[in-house]
Recover the amino acids of this structure.
């Protein structure tokens, strides 16, 4: 799904990962733990989120905020 499909209230100074999870029948799947692990600017990143907690991305939405720069 294209990023432009998701409504957001974040400015251009926000960087993150977001989405939603569906089951095999294309129904929203809530209550699932989603984990983000990797490196950003040589710093280790490990975050968890739960589907259904970021409703801007649908009933099974999740979101990870990586950076917020004031500007």
């Amino acid at each position: 799904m294209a990023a432009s499909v998701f409504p957001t209230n974040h400015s251009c100074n926000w960087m993150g990962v977001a989405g939603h999870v569906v089951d095999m029948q294309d129904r929203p799947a809530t209550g699932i733990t989603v984990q983000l692990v990797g490196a950003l600017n040589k710093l280790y990143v490990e975050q968890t989120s739960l589907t259904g907690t970021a409703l801007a991305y649908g009933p099974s939405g999740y979101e990870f905020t990586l950076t917020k720069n004031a500007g």
Q: What stands out?
A: The beta strands are 14-20, 33-40, 43-50, 61-68.
